[in-house]
Amino acid sequence: MTHTPTNILVTGAAGFIGSNFVHYWLGTYPNEKIIALDALTYAGNRENLDPVATSPQFRFVHGDILDTPLIEQLLVDEEINTIVHFAAESHVDRSIHGPDAFLKTNIEGSHSLLKAAKKIWLDGGVNDHRFHHVSTDEVYGTLTADEPAFTEQHRYLPNSPYAASKASSDHIVRSYHHTYGLNTTISNCSNNYGPYQFPEKLIPLVIANILDSKPLPIYGDGKQIRDWLYVDDHNRGIDLIIREGKTDNTYNIGGNNEWTNIDIVGLICTLLDEKFAHDTTMSSRFAKAPQNSGKKASSLITHVDDRLGHDRRYAINAHKIMTELGYNPVESFETGIRKTLDWYLSNEKWWRRIMDGSYQNWIGKNYK
Ligand code: NAD
Ligand code: DAU
């Protein structure tokens, strides 16, 4: 059964993927209204939504997904028939240092939304509705080097408090379909990269640290593998699932693009060395960068203690979404990483506000 979104509630809309989703959606469907909900935690930033702030199809609501009455009111007042649920605590390192917020937001918060959707849509007779839950490949646990990539049938074996909280929310979403008949879908995606990613995550952290000549922390041996996807390709997949995906189905989303962490960091170092070599304005804009004193960016690479319980490898098998829904990523890694680098170079104010502010770097304490 296909679904036609009219008005759509996007949770976590001021975060990394949520804000990119809002830009993608309003750019693609200018007649569909978006209600962007966000609690503006440390990871949420209203500025991420500035490019669409004046669109008549857009409304920002500063609120918490745990506030069930607020969600119910929004569903009624705004005649929402689609929820795309991004809001979460999303950083694995933070979940190791303080799991409570993860259980609260990711499990209880998701349940709060489901309760509101059940009440307003199911009890209220809104038949054409869709609750889409944005989840992660981390629910499947870790792979060895030669194991096949995760399919939707892979058993759940979450290893970090973050992954366990996402796995729990996936199960609760599933139960709301099975028990009450709510129209739900779930996507489990691999590592995203692109504009507006908070610089606690590997790629933006490495870019910002090179420009300020700070150490590039590599956890353990750096041979851990992640499967990287440009953020718009994730959002294109979600769009397809909302409209064409089968209710109660899970779809894995990925770009078949596995890299070791050390190779990703090496690539960013090389690309930035090239920028300094070819663009004469770089030296004055980023005076502290190592290239200005004849050093390569890779001289900043610093091996630090490994992440506790660190998953060795993630890899996504996206066969189901490709064959059933015709999904294909459009961004190659070559173009996506250059676009991302250019975005961070052009938006220094955006990341410097975070890096120079009260943001705490989780690994700053244990450089070897
Ligand atoms: P993010 O940390 O950048 O953004 C999360 C957003 O949620 C922030 O704007 C934050 O303010 C908001 N938020 C947090 N708690 C809230 C609450 N109680 N109520 C309302 N808003 C709240 O995260 P992200 O990287 O954009 O991830 C978005 C979603 O995608 C998450 O569910 C994550 O698990 C999932 N995901 C992320 C990736 C990735 O690589 N980043 C990959 C797969 C899946
Ligand atoms: O796989 C999807 C997941 O990808 C999402 O569900 C998470 O929300 C998202 O944060 C991401 O999780 P990771 O833990 O894989 O991303 P992160 O950028 O934190 O780390 C990527 C890899 O790089 C990981 O193996 C840890 C390593 N790393 C990370 C940082 C921040 C380092 O070696 N040094 C670092 O400083």
Main traits of this protein?
binds nicotinamide-adenine-dinucleotide; 12 helices; 16% strand; alpha/beta; binds 2'deoxy-thymidine-5'-diphospho-alpha-D-glucose; 7-stranded parallel beta sheet; 368 residues; Rossmann fold
Structural class of the secondary elements? alpha/beta
Q: What share of the residues does DSSP label as strand, in percent?
A: 15-25%
Q: How does the overall form come out from the CA principal axes? A: globular
Radius of gyration: 20 Å
Order of strands, main sheet, comes to: 3-2-1-4-5-6-10
Largest sheet: 7 strands, parallel
Q: What is the CA–CA distance across the termini? A: 55 Å
Shape-level CATH architecture of the domain at 7-193 and 229-255 and 315-331? 3-Layer(aba) Sandwich
CATH topology of the domain at 7-193 and 229-255 and 315-331: Rossmann fold
- Alpha plus pi helix count: 12
So, the CATH homologous superfamily of the domain at 7-193 and 229-255 and 315-331? NAD(P)-binding Rossmann-like Domain
